[in-house]
Design goal:
single chain; alpha+beta; Jelly Rolls; elongated
Length: 278
Amino acid sequence: MNSLDIFNELSELIKLGINSCNDVAHRNSWIERRQHKDYDLWCIQEGQIEIRIKEEVYLASEGDLILFTPQIAYTATTLGTGCKFIFTHFEFSLGDHLRILDNFQLSGIISSTLVEEEIHLFLETYNQYKRNAPMSEIRLKGCLTILIAKIIEQYGLKQYRGQFTHDPTNQKVTMDFVKLQPVFDYIHEHLHQPLRVEEIADVAGMSEKYFITYFKQSIGLTPGRYIYQLKMNRARELLYLKRYSIQQIASMLGYPDPYSFSKAFKKYYKVPPSKFVW
């Protein structure tokens, strides 16, 4: 399993919220020193911007995106006659994990060539949002989701890696997530069997109690909830195929009998599996 697959597996638990979105123009005397509490995405429309983080200097030009993750302290200033950009402050969480994107090296300057279609869609929707067009706030949120998903996809394809230096405390978060990779692989390989948290904790080399806490802090939900989500995702796919009986699906997902599976399925989807696909 690729670590980025978690966004597909747990897509129903992902929340994205826009705190503010606007455009701003600055003259050549502009300078800003900030450290945001949420995620911040800039879309450069005119000019060039120099970003300084610690001792490193980065340059963003017209068409580029700049993604800041929380707690990255930076100094930004214009080059030339000035600049103009759209800024979007947003939150992106998975379950109870409000900083899930910090597990990946995403913060940096993103070339427009990597997300060309997604930027075009976002800008088009932003113009509608500025005119207060009907439903434009919902569309803007959707377009931002698409844009962030594309950035994550390019990261997964190794076409992009953020350059901004992370705080040492964030590096620990990243290492925690990487340490769970064998656990993710084990769960996927044994999804057809009953899975006990104790045996999964052994894979991670941790006590059961510590593992539950560690897992929840890393991805925002408990191991049991993660396994349950994967089984329900797989159950949905198998039902849509219309090739297997409920008894067969129960066996394929490690449930002891059809009743146990049906009970778990109904708890999640609010309907029994027999009525899920018409």
